Amino acid sequence: MARLFFLVSGENPTLPSSEVKAILEAEGFTYQPLEPLTQVLRLRADPECIKAIESRSALARVCGLEILDCEASAEDIFRNVKKADIASYIGDGESFAVRVKRVRGSSPDIDGLILERKIGRIILDVTEGIRVDLKAPHREFLGILADDRFVFGLKAAEIKADGFARRGPPRTPFSHSAAMTPKLARCMVNLAQPKTGDLVLDPYCGTGSFLVEAGLIGCRVIGSDVKRNMIEGSLMNLSLHGVEPEGVAVADARSLPLPTGSVDCIVTDPPYGTSATTLGLERREVFDSFFSAAGDLMGKGRRICLAAPETVGVSEIGERLGFKHEESHLIYVHRSLTREIAVFARK
Q1: 191 and 147, same structural domain?
Q2: Residues 179 and 138 placed together within one structural domain of the fold
Q3: CATH for 134
Q4: In what order do the strands lie in the sheet with 139-146?
Q5: CA 219/CA 216 separation, integer angstroms
Q6: How many domains does the chain have?
């Protein structure tokens, strides 16, 4: 096991780190948490897990091998870099660059550019046969200033978010005002912890956002919706991204024609009654009926990740109907809606 760091998105205080941990658990990697920092998740884990994070995560930005961490003072930083075994992270004849990122204005008294140059100078002094290349280096060392600490390591992967933007409007052939964004949809799929080949169900599939994201990480997908136009639009979106569903049907989520225990996990965003139909049900009734039906579809320990208005009290509903509430994350949408992203496991 090695010391790893993950620089994550700052758009939510809890979701990004939880997504990384969920991916590790889904892929069977054990890990030991280290002291966390703002937007920096630090763990002891097998470095092979970085490939899984790179291929699946929506909210991780950089994955790396941690070389050192210390107080965010120039004196402490330079002393620790000099002591570190930098030569073991770069080969003879290779080039390198040093980058420094500052999280939310941390350590404003430290000049990032000066820090980059001086660390680069130290690396040249303590190694042989290497050179600086700021445009296309073989190796990139990254220092992160966060919470008056400095984490320094070798960048192993960088995750671009532009792919998720390309899957959203206006590029998608079918959209709806209530549709989940591709990035949040992928995050929610990961929180449900499906493995490659698992069957992921969205019983309120709408435009197919969850089905697309689950399909793109190698899951089998199946969906339903009470509106035929949503099913037709969902099929268009799935086809555009090369995802072939096991089935997509016009059906009521309360009585899906699926065998008992046939679903590996459920990821969904049930209707709230604003721009989506609830078939005349009150908000709490929608979630009551959902959990009642979902219990028969999943095996013990299998997960549900769903979105709900914070005011619904979805954690209490899920617990009452046979599910263990694992975690929740709040996302402010607008004045009248704070969305709760909740994860449950079948008891």
Answers
A1: no
A2: no
A3: 3.30.2130.30
A4: 31-33, 40-45, 2-8, 60-71, 149-158, 139-146, 95-102, 131-132
A5: 7
A6: 2
94 and 209, same domain (yes or no)? no
Q: ∠165-167-170 over CA atoms, to 5°? A: 85
In tens digits, what is the pLDDT along the chain, a chain of 347 residues? 999 999 999 999 999 999 999 999 999 999 999 999 999 999 999 999 999 999 999 999 999 999 999 999 999 999 999 999 999 999 999 999 999 999 999 999 999 999 999 999 999 999 999 999 999 999 999 999 999 999 999 999 999 888 888 888 888 888 887 788 999 999 999 999 999 999 999 999 999 999 999 999 999 999 999 999 999 999 999 999 999 999 999 999 999 989 999 999 999 999 875 545 555 668 888 999 999 999 899 999 999 999 999 999 999 999 999 999 999 999 998 888 899 999 999 99
Q: Do residues 124 and 177 share a domain?
A: no
Q: Domain boundary at 107, 131, 158, which?
A: 158
CA neighbor of 63 nearest in space, from 2, 103, 5, 139:
5
The pairing of strands 247-250 and 149-158 is: unpaired
Q: What single-letter amino acid sits at 51?
A: K
CB 127 within 8 A of CB 89: no
User: What does the block give as tokens for 259?
Assistant: 């065998």
- pTM of the predicted protein model: 0.95
Angstrom distance (rounded) from CA 211 to CA 269:
12
Q: Are residues 14 and 128 in the same domain?
A: yes
Given 104, 136, 158, which residue is the final one in a domain? 158
Same domain, 236 and 287: yes
What is the CATH number for 251? 3.40.50.150
Q: Could you tell me the CA-to-CA distances from 113 to 108, 158, 192, 318, 345 in Å, in that order?
A: 12, 21, 41, 51, 47
Both tokens of 228, joined, read: 């035929």
Report the chain's C-alpha Rg in angstroms: 23
Q: How far apart are CA 28 and CA 326, in angstroms?
A: 18
Residues 13 and 32 in one domain: yes
Within 10 angstroms of residue 55's Cβ, the number of other Cβ atoms is: 14
Sequence letter at residue 40: V
